Amino acid sequence: MSIPCASSSLAFRLSRTVLTTIQPPIPQALAWGSAYPSTPARPLLDMSQGAPGNPPPKVLLDALAKTSSSPQSTGYGHVLGEHKLRAALAQEMKMVYGQHADITSNDVAITAGCNMSFIAAVMCLAEAGDEVILPVPCMSLNLLGIKSVPLRTRSDQGFLPSPDECKRLITSKTKAITLVTPNNPTGAVYSPALIAQFAELARENNIALILDETYRDFVEHLPPHNLFSRMQREVLPPSWSWRSNIIHLFSFSKSYAIPGHRLGAVVASPELLQYITTTLDCIQVCAPRPPQLALANASLLSELRSSIQSNAKALKARHELFRKSLPSEWTIGSQGAFYAYVKHPFENVSSTTFCERLAKELGVLVLPAQFFYDEEDKQALGLSEEGWDRWLRFSVANVGDEEIVKVCERLKEWKAHFTVL
Questions:
Q1: DSSP 419
Q2: InterPro entries of this UniProt entry (predicted)?
Q3: pLDDT tens-digit profile of 138-161?
Q4: What's the CA gap between 304 and 309, in Å, rounded?
């Protein structure tokens, strides 16, 4: 992979790993949006960031206000998180995965966001030169010196990853397979059967399956999978325990609409959590305490379940509205949770070029496919599917129905506006 060359006033060299890591996508997109001449009659319409569109319920805001002003929340907490929150989350997971789900508080670690959960887990599994398989589009692990092995997904398969293709990518250096479901950026939702196939693949090869379920509360079918329950499990042998291979990641940000409070979780074997403890102690010391203390109540999490379900129904309806309102020349590849993955109609025009002009000239802010690939992935994907670089990610979560319609109306202007690209 080539390292970008640029003049610098620094008297020292930057690391190769940081120079080859994808730049944060949202600041790049916001810079495009800032160049748009927004007016009250024609404002910038932002569908770029996967953020909840509604504030948290008042009961949660009240709890946050109380814990944020409490002296109890100002000191260090346990590196694995508040015990009451760990117990409450384990109980709440039984609401999602079924009462037979074999999950206890000893399986739970609380982190400063789901990104922290992922980094902590990978740091325990792999070191420089090792490999982790990730379905693309995805973010890379270059910063850790770990090779991200791209598992290609295709639009004609709904951007669902193939276990057979994944099997061919496993080598002696492979330490884990990572799945994100519902997926970011494609929105593709993996079925319980597909997830079980990947779990069996991980079991057969004695590697970990990292299952990022940040958006698990926004799927239509519950439970999202049956890996935590011995009674309903498919494919895998009865003697197998999820704790031997599965590392579950979760984010409170999306379900509870508190992304600014940075709260995530790792659910895994207590044996692995011993090493997660070491990793977290080096990079976070403890997760933010006010949101932990606010949510450390099983009855509050149960009370908030109805709000989560209402938001999930609203998202489903918004997806339907987006699909109905989108101009016919545009192609939806997959939809789910916060995202719709859409192909623009201009041949031989990269999504990066298109998104920049779309933001600056028509005031619609979305993310291009290229923001979710590193250079090596782009080369591989360029050979696998024609037009792969024309896909865009629309977030339907942080806008209302009115904004959805307005975005699609502006997209209808493409024929007159984008005559030369």
A1: S
A2: Aminotransferase_I/II_large, AspAT/PAT-like, NHTrfase_class1_PyrdxlP-BS, PyrdxlP-dep_Trfase, PyrdxlP-dep_Trfase_major
A3: 666 777 888 889 898 889 999 999
A4: 9
Please give the helix or strand (H or E) that residue 266 lies within, else none: strand 264-267
Place of tokens 């002296």: 71
Q: Say how far apart CA 215 and CA 183 lie, in whole Å.
A: 8
Identity of the amino acid at 32: W
CA neighbor of 120 nearest in space, from 331, 266, 227, 293: 266
Note the pTM of the prediction, 2 decimals: 0.92
pLDDT band at 366 (very low <50, low <70, confident <90, very high): very high
Angle between helices 298-325 and 58-68 (to 10 degrees): 130
Residues 189-198: tens digit of each pLDDT: 999 999 999 9
- Six-digit token pair at 247? 């590392």
Reported for 73-77, long-range contacts at CB under 8 A and 24+ positions apart, including other chains, are: 73/289, 73/290, 73/293, 74/289, 75/289, 76/285, 76/286, 77/286, 77/287, 77/289, 77/292
Question: Do residues 126 and 132 lie in contact, with contact meaning Cβ atoms separated by under 8 Å?
Answer: yes
Query: Residue 3 corresponds to which tokens in the numbers above?
Result: 């390292």
First to last CA, the chain: 29
- How many residues are recorded in the chain? 421
**Can you say whether the dihedral through the CA atoms of 51, 54, 55, 59 is positive or negative?**
negative
Q: Could you please report the per-residue DSSP string of 308-361?
A: HHHHHHHHHHHHHHHHHHS-TTSEEEEEETTEEEEE-S-TT--HHHHHHHHHHH
How buried is 348 (Cβ within 10 angstroms: 0-12 exposed, 13-18 middle, 19+ buried)?
Answer: exposed
Long-range CB contacts (< 8 A, 24+ apart) of 200-207? 200/235, 200/236, 201/163, 201/166, 201/167, 201/170, 201/177, 202/176, 202/177, 202/245, 202/246, 203/236, 203/240, 203/244, 203/245, 205/170, 205/174, 207/170, 207/174, 207/175, 207/176, 207/177, 207/245
Matching residue, tokens 């598992």: 151
Sign of torsion over alpha carbons 65, 67, 68, 71 = positive
Stated as kind and residue range, the H or E segment containing 16 is helix 16-19
Look up residue 46 and give its amino acid: D
What distance in Å separates the CA atoms of residue 339 and residue 48, rounded to the nearest whole number? Answer: 10
Q: Which residue is associated with the tokens 């979305």?
A: 366
- 3-state helix, strand, coil split of the chain in percent (to 5) is 45, 15, 40
312 within 8 A of 351, measured Cβ to Cβ: no
